[in-house]
Amino acid sequence: MKKRNPKFSIIGAGKVGSTLALALHDKKFPIVSIISKSGKHAIDLAKKVHCKRASTKLLDVDPSTEYILIAVSDPSLEEVAFELSKIKQLKFKKLCVIHCSGVYSSDVLNPLKKKGATVASMHPIQTFPKTRTPEQMRSKLKNIFYGVEGNPQAIEKVEIIVRALEGKSVIISKELKPLYHVACVFASSYMATLLNTISDLSKTLNLKATWMEVFGPLLTATMENVVRDSTATAITGPIVRGDHQTIDLHLEALSRYAPQFLPLYTITGIEVARIVKNRGTIGQKEYDELIARFKTFVKSLPIKK
Fold first, then answer.
1. pLDDT per position as a tens digit, 84-142
2. What is the domain range of residue 58?
3. ∠ CA 52-53-55, rounded to 5°
4. How confident is the model at residue 2 (pLDDT cuts 50, 70, 90)?
5. Total domains present in the chain
6. 158 and 31 share a domain?
7. Residue 82, Cβ density class (10 Å: 0-12 exposed, 13-18 middle, ≥19 buried)
8. Please, what's the b/e burial string for 116-148 (b: 16 or more CB within 10 A of its CB; e: otherwise)?
9. 14 lies in the same domain as 106
10. Do residues 209 and 162 share a domain?
11. Looking at the domain assignment, is residue 3 inside a domain?
């Protein structure tokens, strides 16, 4: 006899909650209640996943639910957990509650844990831009990793869901959740910021082609080198060569044409110098000279907003 899938309730019908709800529905997980601050969002999502219960009140969570997936803003997690813990009709000892925050551990769900619920965190390592709908995003969940945290029993329950969504798990200790989220931010927002810098500088250069056409092959080759070899060996350029004159020309050009990027260039340059020093490409004296150069420009030049 085929084992049935557990019943889910979704708290939060924003981009992440809606995408995960659609993916769970695609995999035949019954969605028995949708709760959201926006009644319209709750109703719209409920229709898409054939859910009969949509509400703005946590008290309306279906008593038969076995998994609660919380996809609300990080500051709201503690309040949601506390309010859920007061709902008498929930069968806490048979309940698994999972939140989707990247930075918070499952400790934020302690009010529910005290009632006997299994608690965990399951953070999809994926970006959910405003320009994409949940319908468009659900295919982007396939083959991604999820940062999973909790006790062994909780992790076992979460990994069943991750595998059903055709994802993979990386186990993160609760103490390292904030650091894990830093890595996610670097991989997403900070990476996009670096690309935006190239785009803005290209406008000043008056290129006849788009910045993606001009610098795309360089970006692709760099990423291929990182994957094939390592991050450290993929780094090239004037810092690796010890070419201080070129670095000075860079700093002078930025101060004249794009001073808003001086902090980013110098801070990134300091990190490049640290990596190549540890690799043994440059010595301590050369490293100290580079750091002094960068710090001088950061302190002495105005930052354009």
1. 999 999 999 999 999 999 999 999 999 999 999 999 999 999 999 989 999 999 999 99
2. 8-172
3. 145
4. low
5. 2
6. yes
7. middle
8. ebbbbbbbbbbeeeeeeebeebbeebeeeebbb
9. yes
10. no
11. no
